[in-house]
Design goal:
alpha/beta; FAD/NAD(P)-binding domain; Enolase-like, domain 1; seven-stranded mixed β-sheet; five-stranded antiparallel β-sheet; 21 strands; 31% helix; globular
Length: 492
């Protein structure tokens, strides 16, 4: 019997009735308010995303009086505008591609409207689950805009909270396109609100969000063109994996334009014209035409050019909290800002902007402030994935990073395998998958692992443990494989 099944029926019903819009706490905390309108707290967390929720629950478990403030839906970017809805739409896109191929004679395909209904249902379930877990932990949840008026005071509406420690976990927002007409382009946040799809779209950007959105939309039948400012996709990923993905996207009908600098967006006759300069040959080997201006027309445009921390309207600068060159809150190794009582984690600071990273930072900070010294997560070996089709999984150093660290190319060995999975063979597709291991040529230690296959994210997660423990290429080659699997290609 699970913990959930063991809970009384009345408690489960109460959890189902809870929503993310509740403006006041559900579980009273210890202590009394001072001065009537002032509330006492040991820890005030601003932002109920992954980092904020993790920190709030852990601090409350240590007995701290915790107030968690959120102005929007609980769960932050991950639950509402990122990981969860994105991956569900990606699953739907895969079903759409399968159905359109296997049931082409019936016209069978996954419907976008139905997919959005499924996504919204899962988000609502998570809102309830998050709210209930916070209530069970004893966290006071407030809904509203927060302002930090002093190093130990937070204002929410008419209420003032006196706090021993304050945590900023307000996440990030999509960057707007800084060109004339840039407001005509939607963002990745907007996609999850669409009730129907355009017939064609221009995706501006070449990072993982742009790649994921282009891949998802193309699988739902949208004609996609990508304008990438760089000479390749996914600059932070291994170059061979990125090149293989570009080929896979092109094979699925996505048109890629590299070295494309967008200069203007214009709306006319129910469509959007996106103008761009292309100074060098693009990724397909076509002549970019020097510095001439090109135009792509589509029913919609989507800008996925990066995200920026959102904390500057909290009143922190007036208190002496410093901003880094990348726009995040400047913190030390203990996630403390220049103001000793104010800390920050997650997308509000510089570093890897990933849900598990923010959660690990929040839990460690709460342990350090209110309990025992927690074991710090290993942020040097962080697995990551791009949920496109085919998916990308990566952990450790890329080949270029490994060579730069070693100082000489001959000190690094790369092992690359390309193959067609049984899944693709059954579907009648010749789409190749790829595995790349980056190895210390002398010791044989695996420095990085990179995969392109729909199973890659799940495989890379487990391989991250092996890399942390110092796995060598000889260990992989002398381990008996599980057959038939995609993972066995790592051991060949």
């Amino acid at each position: 019997m699970t913990k959930r099944q063991a809970r009384p029926a009345s408690e489960r019903q109460s959890a189902r009735r809870a929503t993310s819009e509740q403006p006041v706490e559900r579980v009273p905390r210890r202590g009394r308010r001072r001065g009537g309108a002032q509330r006492e707290a040991d820890f005030v967390v601003i932002g109920a995303g992954s980092g904020g929720v993790a920190a709030a629950r852990r601090a409350a478990a240590h007995g701290a009086r915790v107030v968690l403030i959120e102005r929007d839906a609980i769960g932050g970017t991950c639950v509402n505008r990122g990981c969860v809805p994105k991956k569900m739409l990606s699953y739907g896109g895969t079903l759409a591609a399968i159905l359109s191929g296997c049931l082409s004679h019936t016209g069978g395909r996954e419907d976008w409207g139905d997919a959005i209904v499924r996504v919204n249902a899962e988000m609502a379930r998570l809102h309830v689950a998050y709210t209930h877990r916070l209530q069970e932990a004893g966290v006071t949840l407030l809904h509203g805009e927060a302002t930090v008026t002093a190093p130990d005071l937070v204002q929410v509406g008419a209420e003032t909270i006196h706090a021993r420690r304050i945590l900023i976990a307000t996440g990030a927002r999509p960057q707007t396109l800084p060109v004339p007409g840039g407001e005509l382009a939607g963002t990745s946040d907007d996609v999850f609100t669409w009730q129907s799809l355009p017939a064609s779209i221009v995706v501006i950007g070449g990072g993982y969000i742009a790649v994921e959105q282009a891949s998802i939309l193309s699988r739902y039948g949208v004609k996609v063109e990508m304008l990438v400012r760089e000479s390749r996709l996914l600059e932070r990923f291994d170059h061979e994996i990125a090149a293989a993905l570009a080929e896979a996207l092109a094979a699925r009908g996505v048109r890629l334009h590299f070295n494309a600098e967008v200069t203007l967006l214009n709306q006319a006759n129910g469509a959007i014209d996106v103008c761009y300069r292309q100074g060098a040959p693009d990724g397909d080997g076509n002549d970019g035409g020097g510095d001439r201006v090109h135009t792509v027309r589509a029913q919609a445009a989507l800008a996925a050019i990066g995200r920026e921390p959102q904390w500057e309207n909290l009143g922190l600068a007036a208190l002496g909290v410093e901003k880094s060159a990348q726009g995040g809150i400047r913190v030390d190794r203990s996630f403390r800002s220049r103001v000793r009582s104010i800390h920050a984690v997650g997308d509000a600071i510089d570093g890897l902007h990933l849900t598990p990273v923010a959660s690990a930072q929040g839990r460690w900070l709460a342990d350090r402030l209110f309990g025992r010294r927690g074991e710090r997560a290993d942020f040097d070996v962080v697995p990551t994935a791009v949920f496109c089709e085919p998916a990308i999984g990566s952990v450790g150093l890329t080949e270029h990073e490994a060579i730069a660290a070693a100082g000489k190319a001959e000190r690094v060995e790369s092992v690359v395998r390309r193959f067609v999975s049984l899944e693709n063979r059954f579907a009648g597709s010749g789409q190749a998958s790829m595995v790349k291991l980056v190895v210390n040529a002398r010791s044989g230690r695996v420095l990085g692992a990179h995969m392109m296959d729909n199973a890659a994210p799940e495989i890379i997660q487990t391989l991250a443990v092996a890399l942390r423990l110092g796995v060598k290429l000889s260990h992989l080659r002398t381990t008996v494989q599980l057959h038939p699997t995609v993972a066995e290609e790592l051991f060949a």
